[in-house]
Amino acid sequence: MTVRSILIHPDPRLKATATPVAEFNGDLAALADDMLETMYDAPGIGLAAPQLGIMKRMLVMDCVKEENATPEPMVLINPTVIESSEETNVYDEGCLSIPDQYAEVERPAIVKVEWTDISGKKVQEEFDGLWATCVQHEIDHLNGKLFIDYLKPLKRQMITRKMQKLKREIARGNA
To answer: What is the number of helices (H) and of strands (E) in the chain?
Structure first.
């Protein structure tokens, strides 16, 4: 398993729509392992393949955050939200591609998602709480949408400018 580099906003790949995964093989399993390793290392609770510059409809997540709790890593391939609750939740969201920036985002409180697992089997599950927020956030990545796209333009521009500055500092070797 390899920890990979996570793209930092703004990057055109983060605004592109990912393509469906058609082939389920060892390369896909290795990518899933790398994605989980990268997510845990960051540390984060979710990561979409486009955040690594891989334009495939694939995400990983694990919203278990309690100390000494058993991790529950999930790999979702070609995920789709098939039902959403009318009820909403507001979470203070962050993103590994937008480090150290957080903002409240309102989303459906409960979603039913259908996806294919790593072995090629169709799965459906209902998510609520943090899991629901996380899966929606990561599916947004597959559609070229970032959590800051839900914010007012001024706040979004402010965060984007901070990320541009961070990228310049990284390029100079100061970050």
So the answer is: 3, 7
